[in-house]
Write a structure and sequence with these properties.
The structure is a homodimer of 206-residue chains. Chain A is mainly α and 206 residues long. Chain A is 76% helix and 0% strand. Chain B binds a DNA duplex (30 and 30 nucleotides) through helix 1 and helix 3.
DNA sequence: GAGAATATTAACCAACCAGTTAATAAATTA
DNA sequence: TAATTTATTAACTGGTTGGTTAATATTCTC
């Protein structure tokens, strides 16, 4: 059997170090030497617990998804909450979470864009989202003429895009919107919560 | 003086090769050896025309911005077109352009996220967008009670986010929306053009 | 405490990296 | 055509990369 304490210690030390460095510099920008050094561990230990840089990266990526706030999506599966309330909660929760961890989220998206073939499967089995509840809710609301008949996928794409955009591509929006200070930007994002909701509702009810 | 023909030839060959490889694999993922080989040029020539990998990359990045479709933003500076028309044209033009060059756009955003300090200045002087015309138009329309009084920056952020989102982070949206086939995805994006416009207008007029 | 399993280390490896150099070829100028 | 500038090349450099190995230290089991 393993000697528990120190094993978990070193393995976790490696993972934590890898997490920080990968997130900061990206998969291609980081070296295992640096990761080992920051973990204060011999480089060979890295290959004792993880058998390649790629494997280590994949575990880090999985962890990053968990902590990114993407899982907020699963709140959309709740059938007991009315549609509009759910939308509001989703927007607020997603924005709040993204405001806390913007870098992690940006990391996930960047790596996903750069290595889609390898990483989508990790995404798929880490987040596994079932859209059926939301679909039904939307269609039933349309049946009752409470909202217009819209494509549920478009709703999801709209809300998500509106929330993510200015956060994960902050550098771009900083330039376009000409907002440089941190506090100003945060205020701008706070203001968005209400706007995104209003915009969505006004679209659904016209 | 330079020997024009062959000079331009080789320099351009290098730039083109660098462009393709950088866009495909990203700045950190690409090596100059590969770039030289694909350009069918001696590696030293790379340092004859560009004095480092970073310089070469920056030129590629600049070129990528030009071809990415980001410049469509500048149509918003036109004061002769009515607000709603301008919005419609911006959405259509941006979407169309992005549909043609989704990878380039993704590249620009990824690199910008990864190296904001170095690349924002290139972005700033490549795109230089003046928001004042749009601001005035919006405020005047609000004065005339044609639209609600909204923050022009939020309008810009909304439209842009809605257009960019599902295109530059396609892998993510493919999973969330569960759309795998290329044609289905393109149709989805086409459908969005109208939806984004409707959504924006309904928000502005409530 | 012997033996086995687990954990850790330093030294090593070949391939690759960005970048240089010094010599040469080709074109321009005079 | 001689001198000069511009273009091109092969070979090289020093450092880094991801990854291995073989020996050793530590811990667990009995």
């Amino acid at each position: 059997m393993k000697e528990q304490e120190s094993t978990i210690d070193t393995k976790d030390k490696i993972l934590e170090s890898a997490y920080n460095i990968f997130v900061e510099k990206g998969g291609n920008g980081s070296g295992i030497k640096e990761i080992a050094e920051k973990a204060d561990v011999n480089k060979a230990m890295l290959y004792y617990y993880f058998d390649s840089k790629e494997h280590l990266f994949k575990e880090v990526f999985r962890k990053a998804i968990e902590e990114s706030g993407l899982k907020v999506l699963e709140t959309m599966e709740d059938s007991s909450t009315p549609l509009f309330d759910k939308i509001k909660r989703y927007i607020d929760a997603l924005t709040d979470h993204l405001l806390e961890e913007p870098i992690i989220f940006s990391f996930v998206m960047n790596e996903l864009n750069r290595h889609p073939e390898v990483l989508t499967e990790i995404l798929v089995d880490t987040i596994d989202f079932d859209r059926s509840v939301l679909d039904r809710q939307i269609n039933e609301a349309a049946d009752r003429y409470e909202i217009a008949r819209i494509n549920p996928r478009q709703l999801l794409a709209n809300i998500t895009s509106l929330c993510l955009g200015p956060i994960i591509n902050r550098s771009y929006y900083s330039v376009v919107l000409d907002i440089s200070s941190e506090s100003e930007y945060r205020q701008f994002l706070e203001e968005r919560k209400g706007i995104i909701y209003d915009m969505t509702i006004s679209w659904l009810t016209t």
